[in-house]
Amino acid sequence: AFGVEAQLMTSRGCPYKCYFCCGGHTWQTLRFFSEAWVVKQMKAFANCGVTHLSIYDDVFALNKSRLRRIGDMMRAEGLHERMELYCNGKANAIDNEILDLLERMNVRRIFFGFESGNDAHLAKLKVGKVTVEMNKRAIDLCVGRGFKVFGNVIFGSPGETLSQMEDTISFIKWAKAHGVSRMLMSVMTPYPGTPVWLDGVKMGRVSETMNWDELMINAEQSGFRGFVVDPSINEEQFAAMV
To answer: How far apart are alpha carbons 112 and 108 in whole angstroms?
Structure first.
C-alpha cells in the first residue's frame, strides 16, 4: 500500500544462535528497550507522517507479555489506527495467542527465516530449533489469519547437497501454493564470528585479510558466488540451482 515507511529496532540480540546469523553472536545478551520508549518512538514516527513501520528485531513476535503491554499502549494512543506494522516471527514460537497480540497492534506482515526445505540441513542452520513442518504450520496459521507472509531461504552452505537444495525449491513451490506473498533467496554469506565463518576459514574460502566488499548479501550482486558451497558442487551446478 502507498505510504511512508520507517524502521525501528525495539531490542538488541537474539536468544537463538543460528549457524549463519551474526545477530545472536554480535550481541551476546538479549536486551529490550522499555515499552514506553518503543511507543514513544512509534508516536514520533506517526506524527512525522509514517504510515508503515518495519520492526527489525530478530525476536519481536516472541515475548507475549511484552507484546501485550506494547499493544495496550499503542491502542491507548490510537497508533494502531495510524500505521501498519511489519515484524519478524519465529516459526517454532508462533501461535494464535501471538497472532492475536500482533493483530491488536495492526501488524499486517510477518517475515520468517525459513532457510531450508530439508529437515537435516535445516537442523544445522537453525541449531535444531525448527523443522520444515513447523515452517509449514507457521505459514498456514498466519495466512489463515489474514497476515501477509514473507520469507527467506539460503542456498550454498558447507555440506549442503544438491538434493537438499532441490528440497528447498520444492518448499518454495509449496509456500507459494499456500499463500506466501514473497520468498527471498539468499546465497550463504559467512559473517565473522559465526559458525559458518569458522567453517569458511577452514575451507580456505574466507579470511580476515580478504576484500570485505566481496561479502555481498545480494545474490545477483555477487554473481551467485558461493563462498562456502560444498566442494563436491561445481560453480555451474550451483549457478543452475539458484
So the answer is: 14
